[in-house]
Each structure stands twice: as C-alpha cells, then as structure tokens.
C-alpha cells in the first residue's frame, strides 16, 4: 500500500505524570521502536505490533519512581486514540475480529467489535503480582484504557493457562490478531458495516 494511503496516526499526550509520543500505522509490517521504561511492557507492545502487522514508534517518559500505573494506563489511552484516528470513518472495514490463541499451556480468547461503543469484558485471574517490572493488575487497566479511548467492544477471556508470562503475552498477541482482522478492508463492504447507517 502506498505511503499516503496507509491508515496511521500520530498522538501526543503530556500530563504531570507522563509524556507520550506515538506514531501508529495499521497497514504496517510489524516493525516497532518502543521505549516505555518497563521492559516486559515493551516486550508485550512489540508482540502486539509484530503479530498484528502494525508499525509503532513509541516513547514514554513516566513517573516510574511512583509505580507503573500511569505509564501503562496512559499508554493504553494513547494507543486507543491512535487506533480510533487511524481507522478513520470505518468505511469498508470488517468491524469484527476474533481468535482463540494458543501459547504453550495457555489458551486465550479475544473478540473485538469496532462499534464506537466502548466496553471491556476481562475474564482472567493472574496469580503473581509482577512479571518483570510490570504490575499484573495493570494488564486489565491497559486494555480498559484502550477500549474506551478507541471506542471498541473488547472481550478477553483466559480459557486455560498457568504461567503468567504466557497468559499476558497470549492476551497481547490475541488482541493484535483480532484487531488486525477487524480493521481489514473488504471490497464487498461499500460503506460501514452496520444496519443503522452509521457507526
């Protein structure tokens, strides 16, 4: 796809807690340059871009001397804004995407509706407080922030799994694959995929 036809967004967010600069491309190749200051979070966002075939340049300066909360939540807000902006008017997109994604002993379900109506269902229990320097309670908060900023209905369910690293990584990869499917364009859809006339 020609560079000028790629669906992309540049989002900046600066508060007293975080300073975030993101360039996001839906029609990408899975390349990333990500610096959040949280190694495991960088790993998850790299997995997201790679498996969704998105491109992302992201630099985050957050108040990590407090904890990881603001950095992760605000990154979710910015990613949601970038997805919403990059998708644009939603003309010809499939709108829905879903996957059952296996990762070793873990199986994760992710389903997405780019409806414009935000809602998160997160059905999983993580059994450790941290993986690397990522607070595991922030995983749900991240996806909540993305879903509400992007205006998407997002369901994430852990079918089974025991290793928290695998579970979280499975969620990020599943979200990537479902979002990739939902944002694909289909020549059979001349306008928006809705009976209401507008999403």
Q: Could you walk me through the main structural features you see in this protein, from its secondary elements to its overall organization?
A:
This protein is of the alpha+beta class. The protein has helices at 39-52, 69-87, 137-150, 164-183; strands spanning 8-14, 18-25, 32-35, 55-62, 96-103, 106-113, 119-123, 130-131, 134-135, 153-160. The strands form three sheets. The chain has a four-stranded mixed sheet with strand order 1-2-4-3, covered by helices on one side. The longest helix has 20 residues, at 164-183.
SSE map:
Elements lengths: L7 E7 L3 E8 L6 E4 L3 H14 L2 E8 L6 H19 L8 E8 L2 E8 L5 E5 L6 E2 L2 E2 L1 H14 L2 E8 L3 H20 L16
Parallel strand pairs: 3-4, 7-10
Antiparallel strand pairs: 1-2, 2-4, 5-6, 6-10, 8-9
Helix pairs in contact: 1-4, 2-3
Care to give the gist of this entry?
The chain contains four helices and ten strands; from the N terminus they run E-E-E-H-E-H-E-E-E-E-E-H-E-H. It is an alpha+beta fold.
Q: Please give the share of residues in helix.
A: 25-40%
Tell me the radius of gyration: 16 Å
Specify the overall morphology: globular
Low-pLDDT runs: none
Structural features:
4 helices, four-stranded mixed β-sheet, 30% strand, 199 residues, globular
